[in-house]
Write a sequence for this structure.
């Protein structure tokens, strides 16, 4: 028979492995979402760079496809908790509030031009990524801060090629970050 | 007085059972994922999974995904029961009712 100290250590090992499992499951889903958004953001930035007149359509399409993809990922990977619902209305509300606040800032309170919009949305999105990372894992923080920093570098130092820069930094960054999460 | 389960009590087997038990019933984990979670080597993990399988605590399914072989390990009902009893015994020891 073991003593209470060894029993506590065994229970701590169990807690540790369960936490690691939960984190790896979260990273797996987040990775899918990041790669999906990365592809869409890459495409939308490329359209903005090559055919600026169609940029607005590309971004509206990418936003709808992005949110739709997240809902699909959620429906295909329902939570394991007994009371967790596969379709969570709070997820939709989070995005509604996210876009409403962004629209209020960029088009009502301020009147952002294409370059400012191309900077605001990624760092706004990455702010939530970084904040989520404080609870859910350092990978989110690393990706959020990394993409935000590169976005700001582009804003201040990259000229006409800013959308192209953002295609690789934001789109490519999310794809690489998503693939990295699968390996952690 | 409940006894600790000698098969589960070994540290690596305890980790394997803890991870599998945290999944929904009938869901399993791939060998590669278990390896990453537990930090064990291929040989060591394989040997301990075999011990758990012989005791009827896990089932092992081998399949091909494309051309790659994939081994999935799932906790059986017997294994889940044994793990729950093992954890209860550990808690009793901590509470001072045993030991």
């Amino acid at each position: 028979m073991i003593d209470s100290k060894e029993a506590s250590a065994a229970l701590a090992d169990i807690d540790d492995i369960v936490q690691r499992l939960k984190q790896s499951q979260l990273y797996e889903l987040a990775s899918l979402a990041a790669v999906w958004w990365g592809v869409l953001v890459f495409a939308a930035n490329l359209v903005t760079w090559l055919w600026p007149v169609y940029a607005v359509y590309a971004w509206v399409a990418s936003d709808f496809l992005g949110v739709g993809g997240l809902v699909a990922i959620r429906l295909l990977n329902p939570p394991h908790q007994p009371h967790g619902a596969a379709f969570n209305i709070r997820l939709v509300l989070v995005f509604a509030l996210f876009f409403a606040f962004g629209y209020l800032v960029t088009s009502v309170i301020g009147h952002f031009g294409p370059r400012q919009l191309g900077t605001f949305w990624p760092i706004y999105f990455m702010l939530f990524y970084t904040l989520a990372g404080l609870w859910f894992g350092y990978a989110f923080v690393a990706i959020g801060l990394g993409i935000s920093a590169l976005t700001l570098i582009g804003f201040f130092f990259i000229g006409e090629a800013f959308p192209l820069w953002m295609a690789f930094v934001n789109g490519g960054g999310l794809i690489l970050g998503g693939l990295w999460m699968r390996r952690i | 007085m409940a006894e600790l389960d000698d098969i589960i009590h070994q540290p690596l087997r305890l980790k394997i059972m803890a991870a599998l038990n945290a999944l929904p019933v009938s869901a399993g984990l791939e060998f590669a994922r278990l390896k990453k979670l537990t930090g064990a080597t291929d040989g060591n993990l394989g040997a301990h999974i075999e011990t758990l399988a012989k005791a009827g605590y896990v089932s092992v399914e081998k399949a091909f995904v494309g051309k790659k072989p994939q081994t999935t390990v799932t906790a059986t009902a017997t294994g889940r029961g044994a793990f729950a009893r093992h954890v209860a015994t550990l808690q009793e020891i901590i509470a001072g009712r045993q030991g």
About this structure: The radius of gyration of chain B is 14 Å. The mean pLDDT of chain B is 91.
